[in-house]
Structures are given as C-alpha cells and as structure tokens.
Amino acid sequence: MFEAEYWEDKWPFGGEGEPDDVPVPKGEVCVKISELVGLADENAGEYSFGGQADTLPVDPGLFVNSLGTISFPLVEEEAEKLIAKCEKSPYGHNMETRINEYVRKSWQLQPDKVEITNRSWEKELDKLTEIIANRLGYKGIPLQCKLYKVLVYEEGGHFYRHRDTEKEDGMIATLVVQPPSTHEGGDLVVYHYKEEHRHDFGKADGTAAYLPHFAVHYADAEHYLENVTKGFRLAMVYSICLPAAMHHLRKDPTWTVPDALSVAISQMENESFALLLSHHYTKKSIGDLGCAALKGADRARFQALEVANSRVSDDKKLRFFIAKLSLKLDISLSDSSCWGRKQAFHWYTTSGEDLGRWKDEEGGKMLKFNFLNPGGETFYWLWESFTRSEDIEFTGNEGPIKSTKYSRFAVFAWPAVRHEENMLNFTSAEHAVEDLASRKLVSAAALRTFLDAASSKSGWGVDNRGRRGAMASVRFCRSFLNLLVDVGDPELTKLFLSKYCPRLGKQNENASLIPAFIKIASTFSWVDVGEALLDVLGTQSPYWGYGEKPGDSAVELLLRVAAGLNDEVPRQALLAKALKKIEKEKTVLHSSTAAEVLWKHAICLGDSQSFDMVISKLDKMEPSELGPFGNVLVQHGSDFDPTSEQFVLLSKIAAKRMEWLKGEIHKLDKLSKTFSWEMPYAGFSERKEITEFLRGPQQSMTLKGERSDQNFMNLRTAKELATTCNDERILFAWPTVRHGENMLNFTSAELAVKDLASRKPVSAAELRTFLDAASSKSGWGVDNRGRRGAMASVRFCRSFLNLLVDVGDPELTKLFLSKYCPRLGKKNENASLIPAFIKIASTFSWDDVGEALLDILGYGEKPGDSAVELLLRVAAGLNDGVPRQALLAKALEKIEKEKTVLHSSTAAEVLWKHAICLGDSQSFDMVISKLDKMEPSELGPFGNVLVQHGSDFDPTSEQFALLSKIAAKRVEWLKGEIHKLDKLSKTFSWEMPYAGFSERKEITEFLRGPQQSMTLKGERSDQNFMNLRTAKELATTCNDERIRESSYVAKASVSKYERAVVTITKTRKWYEDSQANLVRYAEEMANLSDVYKGSRGLVSTKRPRLE
After folding, report:
1. Are residues 972 and 1090 both part of a single domain?
2. Cα(229)–Cα(236) distance, rounded to whole angstroms?
3. 426 sits in which H/E element
C-alpha cells in the first residue's frame, strides 16, 4: 500500500492533489498527447483470436490434382488418398530445414497443387480478412490473404512449440482455416507472455463437424499444435500481409494513432513529458533490451510515440529515454512521524545503455515531471503500482525507523533541440557533457551556452570579489577540456580555467586530466591560457581530503604536464612553477615521470641554484619517500662526474636510501620462512583488538559493534564499518627482489604461481626454486616410500604446467608430474588442464614424461571428468602417434576393468574411432559389452556418435546388429522421457512435478507446487537458525547438493525482524531445459531410428500419445 498520507498532498516528482484526484499533464499539447497515447491501447490489436468463420462457405471446394474435390469432414479412405499426394512437413532449425516426426508430424500440399473451386470462397475470405485487419489493429488497411499451404494431420500428428518464419514480404500474421472436421485433439495453443490462447476449432461447442473455424496469431507468436488423438485434420494456412506500398507499417499495430500524435508532437515548443510504465521491469531487462523489453500496453504506447516521432521534421523531433524512478520514505515506528522523503532516478537510453543515477542526497530537491496519464488513473493508483520493499532500522534512543522504497520505470521525452538543457535539468552535468562530447562537432557558441547553463544549474564559479565557490568536477573537466580543444576558442578556454575549473593539487583522479592539459597547452597561445593553467595545476584543492583518495600533488601535475610538451615556453613556465613550489613546500613525489622530469630539467640542465635547492629538499625527505628518485638515481647516476661535488651530494642521498633499504630487508628477513597469519609490522588501529589480531596468529576475528562495549544497531552500520576497514587499509610492503618468496609466504601458492606466470620469461632454475619453496610451504609430495601426501591444486597446475612448457625442462616436468601433480581422474575442474597436457605431450619426449602423464591422468576419485575421459580427450588433441596410442591403450585398459560413463562427446568420438572402427575385434567386443551394461540415460554422447557413424558398418554385419541393440535400448529410454516431458503443461508453470526427494519434506512439496519461493527459518522445521552463518551454510548445501529435476537458488539473509532465514527461489531453467530436451530427445530418437531402421534389435519408435 502506498503511504500517501506522508506526502501531504504533494506527490512524488511534483504531483499535487488529493489521492482520488485524476492528474492531467501540464500544457494543452501534452494533454492531447496523453489522450492519443491512451488510444494506442485500443489500437494495439489482439494477439490471437478465432472462432466460427461465419463469412466463409461450409465447403471451400478444395480440388487436388488427379484426386478431385475433397469432401468434408474428411473420412479415412479419402484422407489416405490425400496423404499419398502430400509430402512430409519440414521445420526450420537454425539455418537448416529438417524433417523429424518427433518435432513435427504432418503432411503438406503446396498451393500450386490445389485449387479452390467454390467461387464465393475468395469473396467471403476478403470479408473475413477485413474483420481480421480490424482486430489486429490495422483498421482501414487492405490486408492481403495468401494461401501458404494445405496441411493434413493423421493420428499422432503434431507440431511442437515454435515460431513461424515470415513466408511473404510484409507478412504480419498467420490465418489457419479448418473446414468441418470430426477429429479429436489437435488444439492450437498460442502463447503471449504468460497468457495462453487456446483454439479448439469448435470441438467444445459441437460445431467442428458442421462449420468452418479459424484462428489468427501474429507471425512471431510462439504456438503449439497438440496431438491429433483420433481421425484426420485438414487445415488451410494463409499468410496475412500488408500491401506492398504499406510494408513500412509492419509490426506497427498502432498506425492510426501515430498520425494524430505526429501532429501533436509538431505543436510542442518547450514541453517535456514522462509516461509511467504499467508493467514491472528490472534494471537487467531494461539494460539488456532497452525499449524492446516493454510489453503489453507499454509497448503499444511507446511504439505509437516512436512512429509518430519518426514522421515529424527534424526541428520538432523528440528524444526518448527510460528511467527507473525510486522513492524512499522513512517513518518512525514509535510516533508514526515522517523522518524524510528522498527521490532518485536511474537513466537509460532506449537501447539500454546505462547513463547513470541521480540521487537526492539531502532529501530537499523535489524534481517535477510532467506525467501523462493515458489510463485516467488517480494519484493514489498511479503510485500504488510501484514495486516496493521495506527495511526496519533500529536507531537507539529515537526508536526504530521503517524505510520503504518504491520504484517504477517511465519513458521520458523532450524536444531534441533542447536536449542538452534537459540532460542538465534531469541528469547530472557530468552525464550531460559526456553526451555532448559523444555527438558530432559542437560549435564554440553552443559550448559556451552549455557552460553557462551547467554552471548556473550547479552553482559553480568565482564571484565578483574573486571568491571561489563550488567548481566543476574532475569527471566534467575530462570531457569539457577536450571539447575546448576541439572548438579552438581561447577566450572560452581561459574563462573555464579561471572561473569554473577546480584547483587540482591532490584532487582525486586529477592525473586523468593530464592528457587534456597537454593538449590545451599545445593548442592555445601561452599568453592566452598560461596564467589560468598555472593556477589550476599549481594550487592545492581545498577539498582533497574529504573521504577521497588524494591524487597527484600540484608539483607532480606541473611536472607531468611539462613532460608531455614540446613547446619550450609553456614547459619552462610549468617547470619554474614546480621549482618554486618545491622551494616553499615539503614535496613528496609518487610519480617516476615527475621525478624523471625534475631530474632532467632542474638537476642535469638547471643552474646551480636550482640544483642546490632540489638536493636540499631531497636530503630532508624521509628515505621511504625517495622511491621514484631512487630509480632515477640508479638510471642517471652516470650523468655526473664521480669526482664532482654534485655526485658527492647525490651519493649522500643514495646512501640514506640504502641504509633504509638495509633496515627493511633486515626486518623482513626476520619473518618466518614458512607461512604464518602473523603480520608483526601491521600499523596501529584505533581499536586495540584489531591491532592485536593483525599481529597475532588467528586468520579471522569478529566485531560485534562499532566499539568494543556496544553492538551494531543493524546490518547497515556493520556494513559501514566494514567499508571503513577496507578503505583505510593498513599497508604492508616488501622488497621487489623477494617478491616471489613473500607472495608464497603471505598469499597462496595459487596466487603466487599466477603472479609468476604474469611476469617476464622465467628460467628453469627460477621455476625449480619456486617449486621447491611452494611444495615445502604447502607440504606437497610423494615420500620415500611412494606414499602420496597433499598435492598441488588444479588451479596451481593450470599455471605451472604452462610454465613448464615455456622453460622446456623435461627433468623438472617429470619431477612435477610424478611427485607434486595430483591424480586427476574425476577431480573437480580437471578438464581445464587438458590443453596444458596436450602441450606437455607434444613438447617433451614420451620417454621422459609418458609414464608420469599416464599415472596422473589415469587415476582419481573426486567429481570431474573420469580418468578414461581425460586420457581420451588428451589423445584427441595430439598429432604424435606414440603418445596418442599410449593414452588410448591406457583408456581401453581402464574401460575393460572399470564401470565407465562418458560425459564428453569428444571422448566418445575418439573411443569410437580408435577402439571400435579401427580397433581389433577384441577391443570392439569389450567396448560394446561395456556400453551394453550402461544405463540408457548414460549413453548420451554415444547416442550422437551412433547416429553420426552408424554407416561405418555393413547393416547386415554382426557388429551392426550389436550396435542396433544398444541403439534400441537408448530409443526405449528416449521414448519414456518424451512421454514424461510431453505431459508437462505447455504454458510456463513454477511446478516441477518430477523434482527429486529432499530430506526435508516441505522442500519437496514446495518444488512440486505452484509457489515461486519459500522461506526456511531453521536447519529443521522445528527450530530457528542460530545466526546468519548457519543460514549461509544451509544455503550453500542446498545450492551444491542440487535436487534433480529442479532449478532454484537458495540465499541466506536477515529478515526485517533481524532473524536469519534462507529463501529458496525457483528459476525458469528447469522448465526451459525440459522444453529444449523434449525437442533434443525427439531429434535423437528420430535419427537413431533412421540409421538403424529395419534392424532386428530396434524397437518400435511410434510416438507416445498424450494422455
């Protein structure tokens, strides 16, 4: 319920009135547009409709060449003669045309094979077409009806859920005419979102046998022809098309409304409007699809506006956007008073591009929008339909606060000629300038106008007394500075730099502006812009410390811009400013570029006064601050005579840095060489227990409140402290020369090897040292008695195996494979190592690595690809006959000894080729015996191979007979699965009737029932969760140990009553997979039947009847 009383008759986003008032938009033109948009609902047309074809004769006089006129209802004898003249109906699959009776079973006649001899038929069909045009929303348009095909269905005939392709230019819909018929079943079901339109062609009211009936649906509508369970059905299928001159109207069911709307839009001056959308959408759907996600009335209304807009002149066109409107209302539960109202909106283009979010941080700025109201809804009902969520926050002495969030999407429109102005009004200056920069060339006058509007709206500028107020953001400057370069106006550039551009020293992200400032200094005369440029670059921002990471200092900015210039005048001016600041202020450089410039221009090329001043500053720096200069001292020490006074001074600075490095190395050297969670040099935190924890051996700690003597009031305050801890991180550093060792000590072996792989080429010696350290730290290896202990993880192996290939050391490779690499059969994610093993087997001699490779690929226990699959899939990637044959031999040996199930079609293909087609009779018999013992559900990959390669054997051979027996077993299983899936509703339902059993009865009942989500309050039904952690553990278990024949997501959270719960929410995946499997199984069954037809082993594949 929308809590209207807290808005004091001032509704969100500018509405004013009583709850029962019906708001109207401001301005006569917008009132007219609102009324016309409302008519789009009426003209949108029906999605699917049908019934008795009252205008048509009972008998069309359908004449078939060499057969004569067909009588209706169809009788068996005549139907069979007709079918003899037909061809099987195909269907489209991707870019192919296929015939598969398990997907589509019907017969067809092309229109040139038939003739309509009843002379009144065409005339009466025209009348029906006019009715259809009106109901589709094409009133007054002379739609054309073209016979596409005549279809005949016998018992078992059907066509699974599908969409028609457009058979004719300008085709908008399909018309199905059914002459009198006595068949049973064969209903046509048309789907529209979650709605289902069922056409029974008169069976329910008993008129099917005596009158013709029709059904119409849009060309792109999904539909399903159910099983004909008895008798024969004939259908005449027509394509409904627009006249050639009107093809531009296709898929525009609101054609009459846009004509009037275009007139109204042409009369707009400065107005803008917003249209609230009636359906609920998500940011994902709008972000993915934009306006293509709109449905129902929303789609019809927007299409009307879009088409109308395309018909007006360029100077009158509108720009459209989508926005998610959000409201937040805070109410005190202790006295029901309102604590605050805030508004926000998130902008998208009509194609779904994210334009960012505007938020009323202070709760005082109430933007006003001009809403259309095509449905004539009251204020209350306009806002009642918002999506809502609630949260209760406990605030201590003031009592609990209930925060209610409302959200709804809307389409916004404003004149294109006033686009920049409206972007500024309704979004941010940053989004507006980025949009301006993305367009074609902008004139200096347009840019000046834009700057005036942006500064006026945002309150930027320097007043008449020279006092600086708010300034443009760094993000705004990034785009605007480049626009200034493009327009080439020095006066406007000087104005922006001196009046609106912030002083940038230490401003967050200021370094991102350096390329633009280099362009400014290179493009304009230094006389015009120099003074202003020195001021913004050379002055520290007064706002840099407020919750943001500081950017480059003013000195660094000056030096880094100077480094990019070729012109001597601006470069020298920037360097002089930098030296002046260095002389007056404590300076620390973080940029090696800035240090390089300072070295070159102030030390090597400068006068003695500049040299002495800079050296004096460096001498006063802490040695830890000399990092960038340390590198410069190394690279350019030879620039001075070793006997000179300058070299002596530089040596003194270098010595200070070296002494500090020596101390750091000594400190780090004292750390344990085996990994420990202790961080003995961690800095001090305001909370003593955090410091003690970081320096101690524990891996984790829990804080119950912002202070040790209190608890958190709610989850939000806990999140705020967590954010603070992460942002104000206690830093830790180590010498570069010991980076690899410390990565192993303070991170994981997996992260350390990934870091190693990302660096420059590694030598075999370095890799061996790294492996020794990693295995020693992690306790990996095979002991002297051959007993296998802990081994490297699959993740570690992914990086390390590729490094072994790079260094090319066969001895080290064999060592790793035999001593540290795990046995991989069925190990989780083992398939990700197959490319690396193919490289290993291709790079090294099989004599060196073969035995070890066979050992690790051929054994294992955990879930993942089986050992057999690994052996076969690695073999599939090899060209060398020796390792390939060795891997195949090992695979066959394991198949003979163990129960084997293949999940990989690649593995099945290799086994077929090398063990069945090319192997000896013993291998063939052994593999066939194993396949024969498999469950039919496990034969999936082999089912495909049997189809593709069945022709490799003589159909009269004993081998073919054995394969046919296996194919028959698979077909029988497919038949049962198709029958089971066929019984599911053809419209989407949350019911998952075949879901497996859970230990908790209520979960099984939920999965099989119609509800979309359920909430668990405890690990058992008679208890509550102790805390959020135990809830998360159960959610993880539910997700990992997934119940078969179902799809869902389990998530732990804290309810509004501060209790931990687990919410299980069903997903559509199971239903979508079921529908996909139905088609896939039907195709496989048909293909197996085609390949092994006539074999004595194959069972009947007659399609099961729907019950």
Report:
1. yes
2. 20
3. helix 419-426
